[in-house]
Amino acid sequence: MKRLVVLGGGESGVGTALLAKAKGYEVFVSDKGKIKENYRQVLIHNEIEWEDETHSESKILNADIVMKSPGIPDKAPLVKQIREKGIQVVSEIEFASKFTKATIVGITGSNGKTTTSTLTHYILKRELNVGLGGNIGDSFAKQVLEHDYPNYVLEISSFQLDDIDTFKPKIAVLLNVTPDHLDRYDYKFENYIASKFRIAENQTKEDYLVYDADDEVITNWLKEHPVQSTLLPFSITKKVEKGAYLEEEKMIIAIDNNQIHMSTNNLALEGKHNIKNAMAASTVAHLLKIRKQTIRESLESFQGVEHRLEQVLKINKVQYINDSKATNVNATYFALESMDAPTIWIVGGVDKGNNYEELFAFVNEKVKAVICLGVDNDKLIDTFGGMVDTIVETQSMEEAVKMAYKLSESGDNVLLSPACASFDLFENYEDRGRQFKDAVRNL
């Protein structure tokens, strides 16, 4: 009997443990932190051995295979020990994919993953039996065990791709690559780019890579590191032979002499970046033979995802917008780009080596006040202090929202778009977004 050790007792860890047990593995789950009560109950109920608030090396280093949670870095001493012993380390995506023959759509990129994955799933589920998982929602492994859908849309982070071996999606989508998580990649951008491109490393010419042809990082990398996949680029600046492009106000998707035309004026989601997300999702749907009418209707009715440019409330003619999911500078770039009124910007958190330069033009043009929300705000104050009339420091969401309320005038926007991770003051970006919405509702 093979022994699988799962490091991390969260959604992906517990899902993997359940699937492994069902497939005849001896399973042990170990979490250095505290395992949440609901996950603990699942493990107890399924008679899976587990421990939390410690890692017992004697029970871990005798594994045949280790599934580690994407949150645990390779630099962790325990992971180094495991690798030194020659034990295979895999991600949940890698492990679970061995037990399904489903058609997999894998979506990655620095930004837009959740929106594009959710939108793609939203279109496909109208005509196909399809699961949504990966970095979002229910664990992929658990879905393979309980539903074994014939199709999956998986949102995949670079951390999940770092530990694949044979995983290959039928359709891979690479939305964009901008510097993010460099703290996990020895502060080398090329390491992070290589990690994103692993989504295509096992693909053959029968598989597809859908990617942004306007993204120089992607196009330059492809020139130097060609992939086997059939390429389907999308662009909002130039015409492509195969793939998706814009012509006047129309989005055109062209694959094998079969074209879809769609007006971009009717898209439910606003902003240039969302035209790209819609192109990527539509290309996937077209490849999977979804009817044109269904694709059109879906793009016109899709309402977006929580914590991503989510309109919360209008109070005294001031619009409050929750973009807590903007955990890097590029995501905040899109948010500020789409602001069409004077904006009070709430920013800050755990800085992952951010360079704020690309935001300067928007800050000068649109931002009237900056509210810093983080434990350490020095870099923000140094960077933006000279650009705006008002810059203030706050230590809690309630305080930040009250300050925004004081500084705002009729017709303004109040935008939470932190450009940073949330772990200094919040559990995660969802917690941060929910606290923002609660604080706005309590004004």
Automatic annotation (TrEMBL):
<dbReference type="GO" id="GO:0008764">
    <property type="term" value="F:UDP-N-acetylmuramoylalanine-D-glutamate ligase activity"/>
</dbReference>
<keyword id="KW-0133">Cell shape</keyword>
<dbReference type="InterPro" id="IPR004101">
    <property type="entry name" value="Mur_ligase_C"/>
</dbReference>
<comment type="similarity">
    <text>Belongs to the MurCDEF family.</text>
</comment>
<keyword id="KW-0963">Cytoplasm</keyword>
<dbReference type="GO" id="GO:0005524">
    <property type="term" value="F:ATP binding"/>
</dbReference>
<dbReference type="InterPro" id="IPR013221">
    <property type="entry name" value="Mur_ligase_cen"/>
</dbReference>
<keyword id="KW-0961">Cell wall biogenesis/degradation</keyword>
<keyword id="KW-0573">Peptidoglycan synthesis</keyword>
<keyword id="KW-0131">Cell cycle</keyword>
<dbReference type="GO" id="GO:0071555">
    <property type="term" value="P:cell wall organization"/>
</dbReference>
<keyword id="KW-0547">Nucleotide-binding</keyword>
<dbReference type="InterPro" id="IPR036615">
    <property type="entry name" value="Mur_ligase_C_dom_sf"/>
</dbReference>
<keyword id="KW-0067">ATP-binding</keyword>
<dbReference type="GO" id="GO:0051301">
    <property type="term" value="P:cell division"/>
</dbReference>
<keyword id="KW-0132">Cell division</keyword>
<dbReference type="InterPro" id="IPR036565">
    <property type="entry name" value="Mur-like_cat_sf"/>
</dbReference>
<feature type="domain" description="Mur ligase C-terminal">
    <location>
        <begin position="307"/>
        <end position="420"/>
    </location>
</feature>
<dbReference type="Pfam" id="PF02875">
    <property type="entry name" value="Mur_ligase_C"/>
</dbReference>
<keyword id="KW-0436">Ligase</keyword>
<feature type="domain" description="Mur ligase central">
    <location>
        <begin position="107"/>
        <end position="285"/>
    </location>
</feature>
<dbReference type="GO" id="GO:0009252">
    <property type="term" value="P:peptidoglycan biosynthetic process"/>
</dbReference>
<protein>
    <recommendedName>
        <fullName>UDP-N-acetylmuramoylalanine--D-glutamate ligase</fullName>
        <ecNumber>6.3.2.9</ecNumber>
    </recommendedName>
</protein>
<comment type="function">
    <text>Cell wall formation. Catalyzes the addition of glutamate to the nucleotide precursor UDP-N-acetylmuramoyl-L-alanine (UMA).</text>
</comment>
<comment type="pathway">
    <text>Cell wall biogenesis; peptidoglycan biosynthesis.</text>
</comment>
<dbReference type="GO" id="GO:0005737">
    <property type="term" value="C:cytoplasm"/>
</dbReference>
<dbReference type="Pfam" id="PF21377">
    <property type="entry name" value="MurD_N"/>
</dbReference>
<dbReference type="GO" id="GO:0008360">
    <property type="term" value="P:regulation of cell shape"/>
</dbReference>
<feature type="binding site">
    <location>
        <begin position="109"/>
        <end position="115"/>
    </location>
    <ligand>
        <name>ATP</name>
    </ligand>
</feature>
<dbReference type="Pfam" id="PF08245">
    <property type="entry name" value="Mur_ligase_M"/>
</dbReference>
<dbReference type="InterPro" id="IPR005762">
    <property type="entry name" value="MurD"/>
</dbReference>
